[in-house]
Amino acid sequence: MKEHFQSKVIVSGMGDSKAKAFADALSQVQRAVMAGSQKVLLRIEPQDVVVLKAEEAQRKERFLFLFLPRIRSHYKVQLEVVVSVTAIDTDQVSFTAHPSKS
């Protein structure tokens, strides 16, 4: 009934700082694991994280097109995450039928 398996998912995220880009990508791990399985998930534990792609885009912006120039950065990451998953396989659970009261 209770199963333990490993899965590998690829997630991506973006943000205006490096930490926000990583946090955005890691928040999508649960959704990616649930999409690949019809089981009830008890625990998802990351085992390994590999950075596949890390990009930084910079642009210079100015106030009223003339004043106060500043450089804005935007980060994108793509991660391959190996997760250890503990799940319950509902197909192995036997349910008993009871007549409904009407």
Summarize the structure.
The chain is α+β, with helices and mostly antiparallel strands and 102 residues long. It is built from two helices and three strands, in the order βααββ.
Describe the overall structure.
It is elongated, with a radius of gyration of 22 Å. The chain is 16% helix and 59% strand. The longest helix has 9 residues, at 18-26. With 102 residues, it is of the alpha+beta class.
Question: Could you outline the blueprint of secondary structure elements for this entry?
Answer:
Elements: E1 2-15, H1 18-26, H2 29-35, E2 40-63, E3 67-88
Order of helices and strands: EHHEE
> Main sheet?
3 strands, antiparallel
Taking pLDDT < 50 over at least 5 consecutive residues as the criterion, the unreliable ranges are none
State the distance separating the first and last CA atoms.
33 Å
The number of helical segments is 2
Mean pLDDT reading: 90
Question: How big is the Rg?
Answer: 22 Å
Strand content: over 45%
Sheet with the most strands: spatial strand order: 1-3-2
- The general outline is elongated
Class derived from helix and strand content: alpha+beta
Portion in helices = 10-25%
Domains, number: 1
Overall number of strands: 3
Keywords:
single chain; alpha+beta; three-stranded antiparallel β-sheet; Cytoplasmic protein; DUF4312
